[in-house]
Amino acid sequence: MSKRILWKDAWQAITHSLGRFIAIFLLMAVSAFALIGLKITGPDMRQTATSFFAQHHLADTTITSNYGLDSRDRQIIRQQKSVKQVDFGYLQDSTIDQTKRALRIFSQTNGVSSWQTVSGHLPQHDNEIAVSYLLKGKYHLGQWITLKQTGSLKHRQFKIVGFVRSSEYLDRSDIGQTTVGTGQLSGVAVVKKSAFKTGTAYAIARVTYNQTAKMNPYSTRYTNYVEKQQQQLKRALNRHGKTKQQKLERQLKAAQQQLALATQQAAVLQQTDAGAGSSSALIQQAAALKKQQARLKQLGTPTYTLSDRTENPGYAIYRSNAERVDILANVFPVLLFAIAALVSLTTMTRFVEEERIQIGTLKALGYSNADVAKKFALFSLLASSAGVELGAWGGFMVLPKIIFKAYAANSTLSGFQIHFSWSLLLTTWLIAILCTTGAALWALHRDLKAKPAALLLPKPPKGGSRILLERWHWLWNRLSFNYKVTMRNLFRYKSRALMTIFGVAGCTGLLVMGFGIRDSLSGISSIEYSRIIKYDLIAVQNSNSTAKQQRQLKNELNGKSVKGHTGVYFEQLTKKAGDDDATQSISLIVPNNEKNFKQYFAIKNRQTKKTLKLPQDGVIISEKLARLLNAKKGSSIKLKDASGKWRTMKVAGIMEMYIGHYVLMSPPAYQKIFHQSYQTNAQLITLKKGAKLQQESQRLMATGAVKGINQNVNNQRTIDNIMGSLNRVMIILIGLAALLALVVIYNLSNINIEERMRELSTIKVLGFYDQEVTLYIYRETIILSVIGILMGYLVGIGLHRFIILSLPPANAMFDPTMTLTNFIVSALIPAVITAGVAMAMHRKIRSVDMLDALSSVD
After folding, report:
1. DSSP per residue over 434-449, as a string?
2. Rounded to 5 degrees, what angle do the CA atoms 696, 699, 701 make?
3. 648 DSSP β-pair partners
4. 586: exposed, middle or buried (C-beta count within 10 Å: 0-12, 13-18, 19+)?
5. What are 39-77's pLDDT values in tens digits?
6. Helix H segments across 300-409?
7. 393 alpha carbon, distance to own chain's centre
């Protein structure tokens, strides 16, 4: 039996049902675009970073010490069996003369944590320097800069010969803190190693390990391996540190004895004219000994700091951003495909029902079930495959670039790498086939079991029956004829009504979620740094400052720029927590005066809005820290202090806090938990209106009594950048949800009109105007859309709650509040789309040929 006509008919079905074909094509394209794009972006971002780190041999561990790294330290590091390569270098923090910009100047490395040249070249002479490309707009090649603090550098003036990108500093805005200038770094730079004075101890060691080159740097295996190697290395260094401490104690004792002897000799010689010259030399010797003694006291006990990659500025944030995309990929595309599958099922089911008589004809002519199914399989396969092809192209090539660009606004990483995944493409294609071809064959299966004679007869219309509203006489009797017909049709075509409700509810839910996350992101930094944290900066005091420096600090704190200040004890605690078991930095603040402290820090519970009082024997912790530690009021938590000791503390309250981890306690609680007397070591400072933060920071650092400053404006800028990136991603997802709503509402409306064309023609013949005919259909659509929007609110609220708990990084939480505007806009978008589709359908209804539609199908 010839099948040429059968194939011709199958191809003609596409042109005859072009609207249906395009609808399925768009549904699959949008769904594939979101699924592939979001699923591949996280791995693409990680692979881009991994390739960059491998290319520049980023150190697995960096080692610093307050006394520098002497020959024995270097020997211990090299002797570790796991060490593949180690590079020892120098660094110096300095401000550029006549500016407030502070640079951290490193010596060139030899193969570890290398620098990427953006323009110019790396230094080739001792008086040449290459600075961060982020400062390219402020300086130019060939320009000479003068450094205010030379320290261990040989020269004060340097010529800029290049702009570089550091493999260790990935954050654009928060580069780090320093002890010079304003206390905040403006950039990093590199000079030749020979530009530093010889004979000084190395300041930093960078280490790579043998096994890590083959590991994924974002894997738990890598993290555990590096941690194990660090522990072994630190134990070996600490043993040498104890020996060094004993040697330093002997030096300090000898210096004290020499100082006492020199002072006595100087006093005796000053009484004779002959000994005036010798006295002067002894006085100079005594001064030098005093300086050495002060330095040894200031440095204190030899300590070693071993840092992994997560402590590089921007490293953890970039990793967190990639993980945020993974979370969205597990939620957003799933709902998109669910809606697409639902609408595709309706579309293909209607297509099969329209071809009922032709199916019966083909079966009567002797064609097999497989021959009959070819038309529907070809139609759905082409529509879905073409949609997946277009969506996959955008998902692999376009969406990852857009999302990376949004996040790259905060990162120095560049050279985004796009990767292709056959498994992801085939999985998406199979899902699309199940949603379309699977739905068509499922709908066809019922008709293929029927006899040809039954199929050649038109499907009998659904019988009418009393509906629930008719039993409510007080309501039913008040309805007009048109509304009574509408209500009957709603209950008569239940499956069509449910499809419309679910389709609109899904799209509205995605919009509510998207706008809700925007609500939760917006204004977090403003709330954090105006309503909760009210001070402008924290000045951490130098414990070894002189009486003169302390007086200068006091004068500055009482100066015209400072509105107020209060003393606190400030320390950074740590704890590994979260899904990735990363080290969390926790700020411990112990106020000297709780009453004054309330002017600088609002301690409130978010749910109850009640002000919390600092207890005598417990602590108050921030809300996100409580979530990470699964802590509640009355729980006990363990945190590690700066000396590496674990401190157990009881949670007495949980306070509102969106960014960062905080622990607050009273002085009596501090003394009980830390077993030592309380004393302030920092100042919370609020500046007067109009005061310049950078200038005040510089003046505070210049007193010598302050060793570090943490400016809220820098924290706020970092938060705004992170939230801004997420916000841009959410705009993309909101756009996809709106596009899906358009396709769904158009397709369902088109199906509804096509299915009821004879009914519409009948009422037109009875004398209904075109506008009345359109309203006859669209009253149902409007009612179903309103129900769908209300259901979508519930879906969106649930999705929003899940996302705001899962999406934020480990050191932040989102505001769970959703604004009324969100719900209004989320309803307005499908409402406007429904109105626009109604106008398009109105033109279609006006052009209906009533005689053709009412012609007999028998």
Report:
1. IIIIIHHHHHHHHHHH
2. 110
3. 638
4. buried
5. 999 999 999 999 999 999 999 999 999 888 988 999 999
6. 315-329, 332-354, 356-364, 369-397, 399-408
7. 25
